[in-house]
Amino acid sequence: MAKAVVLLLVVTPFLSLLPFSSLALNQDFCVADLPRGDTPAGYPCKPQTAVTADDFYYRGLGTTGPTINPFNIGLSSAFVTRFPGVNGLGISAARVDFAPGGVVPLHSHPGGTELLYVIEGAMAAGFITSLTNQVYTKTLYKGDLMVFPQGLLHFQYNLGNDTAVALSSYSSANPGLMILDFALFANNLPSDIVSKLTVLDELEVKKLKALFGGSG
Q1: Measured in whole angstroms, how far is the alpha carbon of residue 129 from the centre of its chain?
Q2: pLDDT per residue over 128-187, tens digit each?
Q3: What is the disulfide pattern of this chain (predicted)?
Q4: Is 120 assigned a ligand-binding role in the annotation?
């Protein structure tokens, strides 16, 4: 008995150094309670008594999503905000339909790595490294995979005359999305400042702001 007490006294201080999550009871899932809002640790859990099978089911990738202009693509996503069952599981998905000439412009996912799988068609895809601006590009065909590391700018565009379709999975329930064109030209920074920051002619900046819905 005395030995057990001594062992407990020795181990307890080290237990206090462990992350809280390692001491918490394990649970099978944490369906997002979306109305309560997001937090740095993810969405709060929906009460288990309110969870149904519908929380783990989503059919939004079964058809082409809304068109994103002027890029001629349809995008539908299964991020946590649309698919609450992926909350806390470190996974989500999206579908992109590329019309002929369609392009997913330079963009990044600050919160997750992307794995792209081509379902139909042929497309070019690539990403740019953060330190040396090295570009890695490949031509992808039906059945091909390509990975885009977290946070790096990357792109895809249709190489054929028919619609191309790709599915993406992400290493986060909410990987985020920042499209470079919208970040630069859908804002309210004055055009002369954007011109200085991008080394573009101010008239061209105003033209692009008009195209992407910016002001200033």
Answers
A1: 18
A2: 999 999 999 999 999 999 999 999 999 999 999 999 999 999 999 999 999 999 999 999
A3: 30-45
A4: no
Q: Was 202 annotated as part of a binding site?
A: no
Q: Which tokens go with 207?
A: 């033209």
Alpha carbon distance 102, 122 (integer Å): 11
- Sign of the C-alpha dihedral, residues 43, 48, 54, 57? positive
Structure tokens at 39: 């937090």
pTM above 0.70, yes or no: yes
CA distance 126 to 196: 28
Residue pair 91/36 in contact by the 8 Å Cβ criterion? no
Domains defined for the chain, CATH in brackets: 55-176 (2.60.120.10), 186-212 (no CATH)
- 67-68, strands of its sheet edge to edge: 67-68, 73-78, 92-98, 164-170, 114-120, 145-148
How far is residue 164's CA from residue 101's CA, in Å, rounded to a whole number? Answer: 10
Question: 107: annotated binding-site residue?
Answer: yes
Q: How many CA atoms lie within 13 A of 116 on its CB side?
A: 28
204 marked ligand binding residue = no
